[in-house]
Amino acid sequence: MSEKDQQETRAARAALYIDGFNLYHAIDRLGQPHLKWLSYWRLGQVILPQKTQKLVRVVYCTAFYPGSAGKRWRHEQVIAAQRAEGVEVALGHYVHERMMCRNCGDRWEKPTEKAGDINLAIHLMHDAFEDVFDHAYLLTADSDQAATAAMFARRFPEKRLTTVAPPGRDPSVHILRHASGGKIKLNAGHLERAVMGATVGKARRPDEYAPPEG
């Protein structure tokens, strides 16, 4: 067996689970639109220790926001690019909830994303039961996933979990309590290293996500 084969045999299997909207809104606040054109597979490779771990799976949880055709097309290109990179995309959906202003009585319908949190949790737990990975990376700052982390730690004490905070966000202290692998705080530098080219498979980078000159 070659030295490379021996290193791969020793490498722990790593998997990354991404809360798509949690990450998207954090990147949006950076004011650098080109960072939205990310390879999530490459991002996983950027954050995990290459000498001791090998990335085997990435799951991206998201949903199409109702409304703008342009926004829908951009999201479709992002999803197509992720799939071309080997990422599994778990799609949720939106519902319209009736809202009312208590002061003026005005009524409207608010689009509310559904299934994203559940998709994130069940994919991580399903893959743990199937023994897909040794070390999971959970990319979200949403403390709702603390219950997922707690169950994971209780059911799979032999596996490790690292909580990954989107750029500009602090890790959830509630998730961190159950994260035996500690925490990672993403920054723009991590994202820059994972930006994709103008075309990925059949996906085309939207003009809005073109990198700045230079």
TrEMBL record:
Example GO molecular function: RNA nuclease activity
According to the record, the segments passing through the membrane are: none
Alphabetical list of InterPro entries matching this protein: NYN
Signal peptide positions are none
Superkingdom to which the source organism belongs: Bacteria
User: Where would I find the NYN domain in this sequence?
Assistant: 13-144
Kindly provide the name given to this protein in its UniProt entry. NYN domain-containing protein
Q: Which organism is it from?
A: Rhodobacter capsulatus
